[in-house]
């Protein structure tokens, strides 16, 4: 590597999106309803009453978006498949028009020299599975998800070689079944919350098995999780050790059991004397070997050593620097510590599967979107990515969230995460300054 903040030749620069946030065409060509379609119809839940019915209309404009990515110079696109587009009821009949759409998208990507990285599930559960069985609360969800993974592998693995089972366990389990701000909007007690999370783990494992069993040739499989990224407050050997311990235990509901085949003791202790019943045999499925670890990362959590083996966690203070969306507190060193700690704990290749921010993004009088705040955010995170690689951590790729402004869940279209601006009334795409920044970084192989 020729200079500071550079990247190796083989480093993968990509962008990421999710089906429900970009596709639109929610009532077209045989797609079934998802629990997020239902959520967007509830009065007063989504900011400004926005729906994802049109979103970025990628369903019809995928060629334009692939052309944008080709111009940008990315070598990978992480996108998710809409389960209800492929299997409208979440089980049984497959929708051939759904298969056709993803075939068109995959073929267009490959033709442009862009490798598809496919997420099986990014929160848009078929409504039918929610209605008939209670969604993730049902142990049967693992069978359905496994079947769905098998059909995906059968349909696409001749061309798609990289798969993520799920995106962010925490968001579709806890936010949906414990905090109740995501669908199905439940506030379940701890032992039922445990069941929901546990079913998600088994479903993940079943999907890994089904993908490998039905794949037409070698594939690579992992997950994309928004782990709590632990940053040692001050870089001392004690704090680094404490951050490792904190990372392992704070991610005790999902990542740690998948990679270690057991819940950490500290996680089970949170249930007091009433650890919910689960079948220990499940861990044979849950801990199916993976090829890589995918980490979505946005914000830090701080750790200091306490006592001989303990740690103390501090969340960013009230006045911590943040981006447009209120929860997005900034500390670029997450892009160093997240991969380094995950590697030291579990020794697998690491990918940053999401990183990015929302901004104010108002076009100026010439129509340009000079998003200096996003350039700042990306530049400093990418420098930390480069530092991490220089320290010998096998951090293999970076997927910027997001290619396009899109439907930001309960925030609707009010939070813009794209490096391409979307005018949602015309669907016109305009490159922001951050697009030029990322393009320059990719083409020069160093942070510009
Ligand atoms: C991720 N938080 O969600 C999702 O994977 C994307 O679909 C989403 O658009 C993106 O990040 C930006 O929000 C998150 O509150 C949602 O810390 C909430 C949080 C983090 C990530």
What would you say about this model in short?
About 40% of the residues lie in helices and about 15% in strands.
Can you put this structure into words, describing what you see?
This protein has one domain (12-228, 291-300, 321-444): TIM Barrel (Alpha-Beta Barrel). The protein has 448 residues and is of the alpha/beta class. The strands form three sheets. An eight-stranded parallel barrel has the order 1-2-3-4-5-7-10-11, surrounded by five helices. The mean pLDDT is 97. It starts with 11 loop residues before the first strand and ends with a helix. The relative contact order is 0.14. It is built from 16 helices and 13 strands. The protein is globular, with a radius of gyration of 21 Å. Bound molecules: 4-nitrophenyl beta-D-glucopyranoside.
The CATH homologous superfamily corresponds to Glycosidases
By CATH, the topology is TIM Barrel
Run of helices and strands: EHHHEHHEHHEHHEEHHHHEEEHEHEEEH
Roughly what percent helix? 25-40%
Spatial ordering of strands, largest sheet? 1-2-3-4-5-7-10-11
Report the structural category. alpha/beta
Query: What's the overall average pLDDT, rounded?
Result: 97
Radius of gyration: 21 Å
Tell me about the largest β-sheet: 8 strands, parallel, barrel
Count of DSSP E strands? 13
Query: Can you name the CATH architecture?
Result: Alpha-Beta Barrel
Tally of domains: 1
DSSP strand content? 15-25%
Outline the low-pLDDT stretches: none
Ions and ligands: 4-nitrophenyl beta-D-glucopyranoside
Distance between the termini: 15 Å
Estimate the global geometry from the Cα principal axes.
globular
